[in-house]
Amino acid sequence: MVVLLEVVLVLGLIGIVGSYFFRGRRDAERQDVIERRVEAYMQTIRREGGSSELAAMGDLELRDLLLSSARNLRVQAERKWYILLGGGAAAVLAAIAIGTEEGTRGFGIVLLVAALALYGINEFMGRRMREPLVARGIDVERLRVE
Description:
Layout: H1 2-21, H2 23-48, H3 52-55, H4 59-102, H5 104-135, H6 140-143
């Protein structure tokens, strides 16, 4: 059993180190996709008019605005993911602590309450990260890179 745990830990460590080495390539590919999406969105804004504020901007100003918006969207999405991950871990630990005292019913109730709270946090943070972009007339889905 101990040997199996050690093998899993070593494989996990190798996976983490490998992903760290390929991180630069993955970030460069993501940046290329963002730049292509920004260029396509700029052409759409010029062709269809979009909002008057966006249509009145020069190409360089519009490109900078869209690129910074895409970067901010990605950073906020990562922040949201880490907060939800930490909240999920805290919820499981709290459910285990309550479950040892109250049994499976307490465990289930704590998990249900935590799931509802995390869902609310996810929705709140998702709307908060879109608000500034929507206020300027930017289509968030055109800038999103998964």
